[in-house]
């Protein structure tokens, strides 16, 4: 597989896709049927469909009955914690193993020529980005995610919230399924932007940005306060009519789905001619440049507020101008 058919590699060895990033085609005129079809396809495949499938398996086989859920008890809380931890271990672990330990595709489609394991740094526990990320994921990330899940299911079992059923509102449920990733991204933008304000950045968000060259275990490597904010998008289900299956889906999308953006590779090589798009580049650029792409491009807020970076030299120039204006303003303030 020749990755130079799809991108270019600079002297250092950093690979860049040839096609610039674009915000969702729905916001770009004139509308192109082919682009919209490709977007809708990518909207569901592979991630959203996989997370909905997993949530359905959880709901049918790995969630206790209503009577059990109505009372908090260590048994079922630990079951949920265990299944979430196991899913993360398998999913993040498989990506890490394939791409970073066994290096199955070498540096093909890899944005940054360096490997995180070569960057021993004091900002990480045990000087390792991977170990630091795994510790933060399992000690606070997965427990906080599970706490939201427990609370939502407990509310459901006790009749707290606006719950409904698929048979009562089929059209609404399809719309809700379409809307969940959009809500998730909108909420993420709204918490992420303030996390870049100096005090919050220094005390909270810098933990996540220690991974300048992100890899799978960077995904949930966050300060616990950021994890609390990050998973709070699931509280939506206490406000809008939904079924608990959506809350499970949403939390998988947030928890397991956080890997999208932190894979470090543009495509996963699955066979001689088979490639899987990772949808990672947008958030990779956020880790690289910090002050761009607070969202993921499905919700066009970065475009509206002038912080969108599409990976091109033109976007580099716009960012440089923005940073210069900021430096000048700070200097003028003395
Ligand atoms: Zn990130
Ligand atoms: Zn950030």
TrEMBL record:
InterPro entries: Fatty_acid_hydroxylase, Sterol_Desaturase_Related. Keywords: Membrane, Transmembrane, Transmembrane helix. The keyword Disulfide bond does not apply. This is Desaturase. GO terms for cellular component: membrane. GO terms for biological process: lipid biosynthetic process. It is found in: Membrane.
């Amino acid at each position: 597989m020749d990755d130079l058919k799809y991108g270019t590699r600079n002297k250092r060895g950093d690979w860049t896709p040839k096609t610039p990033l674009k915000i969702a085609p729905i916001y770009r005129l004139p509308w192109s049927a082919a682009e919209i079809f490709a977007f809708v396809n990518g909207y569901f495949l592979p991630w959203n469909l996989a997370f909905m499938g997993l949530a359905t398996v959880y709901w049918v086989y790995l969630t206790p009955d209503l009577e059990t859920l109505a009372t908090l008890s260590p048994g079922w809380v630990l079951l949920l914690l265990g299944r979430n931890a196991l899913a993360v271990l398998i999913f993040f672990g498989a990506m890490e193993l394939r791409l970073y330990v066994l290096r199955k595709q070498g540096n093909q489609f890899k944005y940054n020529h360096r490997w995180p394991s070569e960057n021993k740094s004091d900002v990480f526990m045990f000087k390792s980005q991977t170990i630091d990320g795994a510790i933060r994921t399992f000690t606070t990330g997965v427990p906080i995610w599970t706490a939201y899940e427990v609370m939502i299911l407990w509310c459901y079992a006790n009749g707290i919230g606006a719950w409904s059923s698929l048979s009562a509102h089929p059209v609404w449920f399809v719309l809700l399924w379409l809307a969940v990733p959009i809500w998730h991204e909108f909420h993420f933008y709204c918490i992420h932007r303030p996390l870049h304000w100096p005090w919050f950045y220094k005390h909270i968000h810098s933990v996540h940005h220690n991974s300048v060259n992100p890899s799978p275990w960077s995904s949930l490597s966050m300060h616990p306060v950021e994890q609390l904010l990050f998973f709070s998008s699931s509280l939506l289900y206490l406000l809008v009519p939904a079924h608990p299956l959506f809350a499970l889906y949403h939390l998988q999308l947030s928890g397991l789905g956080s890997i999208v953006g932190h894979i470090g590779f543009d495509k996963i090589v699955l066979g001689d001619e088979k490639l899987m798009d990772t949808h990672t580049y947008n958030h990779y650029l956020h880790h690289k440049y910090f002050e761009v792409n607070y969202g993921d491009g499905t919700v066009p807020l970065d475009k509206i507020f002038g912080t969108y970076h599409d990976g091109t030299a033109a976007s580099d120039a716009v960012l440089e101008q923005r940073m210069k204006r900021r430096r000048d303003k700070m200097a003028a303030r003395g």
